[in-house]
Write a structure and sequence with these properties.
Length: 234
């Protein structure tokens, strides 16, 4: 199985991925972990990957363009391989809560692509058109998706035969895990879709991914109502 991690801070992963179980699993060629720097897919001299949010608000938003370019190139490479069952995840505060059942589902694909968010969020068109699923690791705020990516890589890797070295260890973990529990969470954080420039992105001729007009209107009352309508408590 191959994990593909898209991030603007690739060095964050150096230490953790080269220690303990994950190091041994890579040495045995049971898993591969590839890190991609999103700035390599950005345009311009400064390789800008973020911009101010439409509609106003604090912080910066990761742009759709470099993420689209990275995923498109990656999927074209995967398409040439024999094993190409792929799932693309956006690590997001608004995502579905990651659990053991989800880890087991992800362990059945050949390629797991993890998009690490940063700053105020990721342009909503990534979730809408590029990712197969949005995933969160809990009801708390982190600076980015790098730690969630590590959590998912480790949890999924442990389910791959040979990684733990003992099938009984896997079965014991399964019985003691939360795989079959249905726990209800208390929603405390409100999160809404965010967009940034360009207002219209065309990944291919004839296809237009547009920012909602209300966010371009400058009407703060309408923008507030839109965010309330499309956001959710987490």
């Amino acid at each position: 199985m191959t994990f593909h991690i898209l991030t603007i801070f690739p060095k964050i992963f150096d230490s953790y991925l080269n220690e303990s179980i994950l190091r041994r699993a890579q040495e045995k060629k049971l898993i591969k972990i590839k890190i991609y720097n999103l700035r390599d897919f950005a345009k311009g001299k400064h390789k800008q990957v973020d911009d101010k949010p439409y509609g106003g608000g604090p912080g910066m938003v990761l742009k759709v363009e470099p993420i689209y370019k990275a995923i498109s190139k990656l999927k074209s490479q995967i398409a040439k391989l024999k094993k190409k069952k792929t799932k693309t995840l956006l690590l997001s505060l608004r995502g579905e809560k990651f659990n053991q059942k989800m880890a087991r589902e992800f362990s059945e694909v050949d390629h797991l692509i993890l998009i690490c968010g940063r700053y105020e969020g990721v342009d909503e068109r990534v979730a809408k058109y590029i990712a197969d699923k949005e995933v969160s690791i809990g009801d708390y705020i982190l600076s980015g998706g790098e730690l969630p990516a590590l959590v998912i890589v480790e949890a999924v890797s442990r389910l791959i035969p040979g990684v733990l070295g003992n099938i009984e260890s896997i079965e014991e973990e399964r019985m003691l895990s939360f795989e079959n529990l249905d726990q209800k969470s208390k929603f405390k954080i409100f999160s809404y879709p965010v967009y940034t420039r360009p207002a219209i992105f065309s990944p291919k001729p004839g296809i237009l991914w547009k920012v909602p007009k209300v966010l371009l209107s400058g009407n703060h009352q309408k923008i507030l109502l839109w965010r309330r309508k499309h956001g959710k408590w987490i």
